[in-house]
Amino acid sequence: MKETCNKCSRNPPVYFRDYSGERLCKKCFLSSLDRKVQRTINKFSMIKYGDHVAVATSGGKDSLVLLSILKSIVDAAKGITMSAITIDEGISGYRDESLRIVSEFCSKLEIPLTILSYNELFGTRMDEAMKLRPSAKLTSCSICGTFRRRAIDMAAEKVRANVVATAHNLDDEIQTFMINLLSGDVNRIGWNQASSTYKEGYMKKIKPLSEIYEREIVFYALQKGIPFQGEECPYTNESIREEIRQFLNDLEKAHPGIKYNTYKSTMDISTLVRNRRGSDMVRGACQKCGRDCTEQICSVCKIQEILKPADPPG
Ligand code: SF4
Ligand code: ZN
Ligand code: ZN
Fold first, then answer.
1. Whose alpha carbon is nearest atom 6 of ligand 1?
2. Ligand 1 pocket by Cβ (under 6 Å)
């Protein structure tokens, strides 16, 4: 007898979800992911009537899947506006492909796109920053991640959004937790939330894919024919993230479901840290640029200072 999907009992299965034991056909797999994202949005009250959601879109699989799922949700909900924002880091040969993919995908879905670059915002391209940094201790991804968070905020402000959606998936969230744990940065562990607003009236940050496995997002993109960037960032191998990703994937292979359990634990720990360290985590304004910050000088200004070209001799 021919095997059929465990949900609809009709179509042939195309995906084996090993943590639940389900075999799903294409239609049931896609709708299960759509529903999961909708559930995450509802659980954290991420979006409400009247919101303008800016989706940070890099051109990778996660951000294009998020754009596609959110577009259906926004169209069905009415009263919600949506934009895409893309940041050009200034990495030769890498960003060009993704900018083309994002532009084509956004025009197909009829989503307005705004592109801002590190160069216009911070006066430095990533390629230059890599030459100007004093040592490899200041890693590519810590420079880039710091600039990107700020650039996304600025792009969202530019399009007058009040919500920023990023495409962090469940794997990203655990990796970030472990990076902070291994580097002794307990405060940062407290910042990790699926949905957050630091103060009333501040930009809300949401992560609608934060409960979805990375592997399922890739499969969703492939099944839906969503194009995504294949090119790897040339600076990626400086990050410990890749080693942690491999370690977690090996664990998941041997113990299906362990990543989801770990994710739940990281979220609980994050809440405990936030509640415990409440007063340490109060945000003020950076003395240099005036933007939201937890210390006297924000990390963007600190990095810009470090990356200043040396004065010419004489
Ligand atoms: Fe930036 Fe690192 Fe991502 Fe490359 S891998 S785009 S350097 S954060
Ligand atoms: Zn089915
Ligand atoms: Zn600053």
1. 233
2. 89, 140-141, 144-145, 233, 235-236
Cα(24)–Cα(29) distance, integer angstroms: 6
pTM given for the model: 0.92
pLDDT bucket at 2, cuts 50 / 70 / 90: confident
Q: What is the whole-number distance in angstroms between the Cα of residue 154 and the centre of ligand 1?
A: 19
CB contact at 8 A, 64 and 228: yes
Chain centroid to CA 240? 17
Q: Domain segments of the chain: what residues?
A: 45-273+299-306
Name the closest ligand to CA 238: 1
Ligand 1 center to 236 CA (angstroms)? 6
Superfamily of domain 45-273+299-306: HUPs (3.40.50.620)
What is 118-168 written as a DSSP string?
Answer: HHHHHS--HHHHHHHSSSTTS-HHHHHHHHHHHHHHHHHHHTT-SEEE---
Query: Which of 141, 147, 237 has most ligand 1 atoms within 8 Å of its beta carbon, as the pocket-test mutant?
Result: 141
Say what the pLDDT of residue 39 is: 97
Residue 167 has pLDDT above 90, yes or no: yes
Listed residue (57, 59, 82, 56) closest to 71, CA to CA: 82
User: Residue 269 and residue 246: Cα distance in Å, rounded?
Assistant: 23
pLDDT of residue 170: 98
The residue ranking higher by pLDDT, 292 or 258, is 258
